[in-house]
Amino acid sequence: MSPGAVTRQDGPLALICGGGSLPLTVAEAATAQGRQVVLFLLRGIADPALATHYTHHWIYLGQGGKFLRLARANGCRDVVFIGSVVRPALSQIRLDFWSLRRVPRLLAAFRGGDDHLLSSVARMFDELGFRLVGPHEMAPDILMPEGALGHVQPSERDRDDIAFGLDYLSVTGRFDVGQAVVVAGRRVLAVEAAEGTDQMLQRVADMRKNGRLRAPVGSGVLVKAPKPGQDRRFDLPAVGPRTVDGVARAGLAGMAVAAGSSIVAEPEKLVATADRAKVFIFGASAAAQG
User: Fold this and answer.
1) pLDDT grade, residue 280 (50/70/90)?
2) pLDDT the model gives residue 90
3) For the ranges 3-12, 88-97, 142-151, 268-277, which has the lowest average pLDDT?
4) For residues 5 and 257, what is the distance between their CA atoms, to the nearest angstrom?
5) 147-149 and 238-239: which strand pairing?
6) Strand 280-284 with 147-149, pairing
7) Of the candidate ranges 21-25, 165-169, 232-236, 265-269, the one whose mean pLDDT is the lowest
8) Shortest CA distance to 134 belongs to which of 266, 15, 264?
9) So what's the pLDDT on residue 3?
10) Start-end of CATH 3.40.50.20 domains in the chain
11) Assigned fold of 13-138
12) Where in the chain is the domain with CATH 3.40.140.80?
């Protein structure tokens, strides 16, 4: 074990929080299990409202030394990454002295896809004796169940597009590109890349508005699934009410996500939003995922 490494044991849980509502969901679930939580809120990314709920510290991306010092002072051994984070430019990262000493390694981590970056970060935590935990291990109810949520069901045409999309992602995911695709009539309309799911859906909406998309309104499916071999401790596909809004604006029939390996944010609001917009939410089974 490296000098200064910590011993793995139960104790306060460190949540490194990105954007969205999932950090609060996981914190509440962990607390309900009797686990104390300490939030490490990423400046400029995490919701400031989180600071009113739990013990917390604000940190910038790149302040590895500050995190280590505060995590150890609070007795944290297990760490969860949760919430949305857009890959930052190096100029947006505030490197402290601990991180500056590891610049060559950090630069190497950035040379590749998101999985490469995250797995490199995970190895650093492991070497320091911390244990990275998947958010679903603390809050299993956040995982998408099989079948349809809400009142709207996918049609046979939609199910065919879902199967096509999952097959497509099983191939392209090997290149560490993205976790989402929009399919209509077995035709790929858009692929998620660095912009994220919301912006990809906006592109589809813009194509409809500009007349570049001839598929009728109410057809087409957003499909999301983890990449093959992806480390399930972080960056699982996630959907929430905002995703439903994007699907509706894009004129799609609905969305399908991999059951058991995708995260659902604010499920009650998600279903209500989908029913109101008359779009479906479908959890694709392992068999459908191939």
Assistant:
1) very high
2) 61
3) 3-12
4) 38
5) unpaired
6) antiparallel
7) 232-236
8) 15
9) 37
10) 13-138
11) Rossmann fold (3.40.50)
12) 143-284
| Sheet with 280-284: strands ordered across | 147-149, 280-284, 254-258, 221-224, 180-184, 187-191
What is the pLDDT at residue 127? 85
Return the pLDDT at 5.
Answer: 40
The structure's pTM equals 0.81
**Digit-coded pLDDT (tens) for 33-45:** 889 999 999 998 8
Both structure tokens of 266: 């604010």
From first CA to last CA, the distance across the chain in angstroms is: 40
pLDDT number for residue 229: 74
Contacts of 265 (CB under 8 A, 6+ apart): 20, 21, 22, 25, 142, 238, 239, 240, 241
Whole-number pLDDT of residue 107: 72
Q: What is the 3-state secondary structure (H, E, C) of 115-159?
A: HHHHHHHHHHHHHCCCEECCHHHHCHHHECCCEEECCCCCCHHHH
Domain 143-284 in this protein, CATH class: alpha beta
- Contact between 164 and 290 (Cβ < 8 Å): no
Amino acid at the residue 103: V
Written as six digits, the tokens of 73 are 């002072």
Tokens 């390996």, residue? Answer: 261
